[in-house]
């Protein structure tokens, strides 16, 4: 076979394409996927989804070729019972590597029984585990006006759940933001648009460390 300059160019181009395909395939193989199952704190309440911390974090990962893909299944007003009903279909639709549970706030605001909340969260964890999905649970806090006994029991259930189920535990992601009125919406419960970027910067690193651990 006579290799001309033109032939050599085509061979080089083909090899370059194959190399790029190999690199992209390896990159996709190393990318983890995470389902965010939350309430209004993760559903960009009061703004568009694109302005919320989950979308901002996902955009950051894409722009910087980070090995994590986020799927936001959060709904404003969601309860642990509602999320438990939705979870089987969500996992069937999205075969993910990780599940992050950010739920319970609405249960607490409704004064739901602690045992009921715990049972729902536990069922979600076990359902994910049965499918080989790793789980992380987010600590949730509620206003103190529900009484010290209930508030203490509610807030302690998350760490207890993480220890009993041997899953990852994340601190409440708006702990310091909730005390700064300029970062909260008028209801005093939901972070505003300005706060979303701050939450995103915090979660970008935490979630990557979680899946890379």
Question: Can you walk through the features of this model?
Answer:
The structure is a single chain. By secondary structure, this protein is an alpha/beta fold. Helices cover 52% and strands 12% of the residues. The protein is built from seven helices and five strands. It has helices spanning 5-30, 53-63, 80-93, 105-109, 114-130, 148-165, 193-212; strands at residues 32-38, 68-72, 98-102, 134-138, 168-170. A five-stranded parallel β-sheet has the order 2-1-3-4-5, sandwiched between helices. Helix 2 packs across helix 7 (193-212). The relative contact order is 0.14.
According to DSSP, the number of beta strands is 5
For the sheet with most strands, the description reads: 5 strands, parallel
Mean pLDDT across every amino acid position: 90
Structural class: alpha/beta
How many alpha or pi helices? 7
Percent of residues in helices: 40-55%
Low-confidence stretches: 15-28
Spatial arrangement of strands, main beta sheet:
2-1-3-4-5
């Amino acid at each position: 076979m006579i290799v001309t300059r033109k032939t050599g160019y085509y061979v080089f181009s083909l090899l370059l394409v194959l190399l790029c395909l190999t690199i992209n395939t390896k990159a996709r193989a190393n990318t983890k996927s995470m389902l965010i199952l939350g309430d209004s704190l993760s559903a960009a309440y009061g703004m568009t989804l694109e302005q919320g911390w989950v979308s901002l974090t996902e955009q950051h990962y894409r722009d910087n070729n980070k090995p994590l893909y986020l799927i936001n299944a959060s709904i404003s007003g969601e309860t642990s019972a509602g999320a438990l009903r939705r979870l089987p279909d969500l996992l069937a639709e999205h075969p993910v590597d990780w599940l992050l549970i950010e739920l319970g706030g609405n249960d607490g605001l409704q004064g739901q029984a602690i045992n009921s909340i715990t049972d729902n969260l536990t069922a979600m964890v076990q359902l994910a585990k049965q499918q080989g999905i790793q789980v992380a649970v987010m600590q949730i806090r509620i206003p103190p006006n529900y009484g010290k006994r209930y508030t203490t029991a509610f807030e302690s259930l998350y760490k207890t759940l993480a220890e009993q189920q041997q899953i990852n535990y994340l601190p409440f992601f708006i702990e310091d933001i909730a005390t700064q009125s300029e970062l909260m919406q008028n209801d005093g419960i939901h972070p505003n648009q300005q706060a979303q970027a701050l939450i995103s910067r915090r979660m970008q690193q935490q979630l990557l460390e979680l899946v890379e651990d």
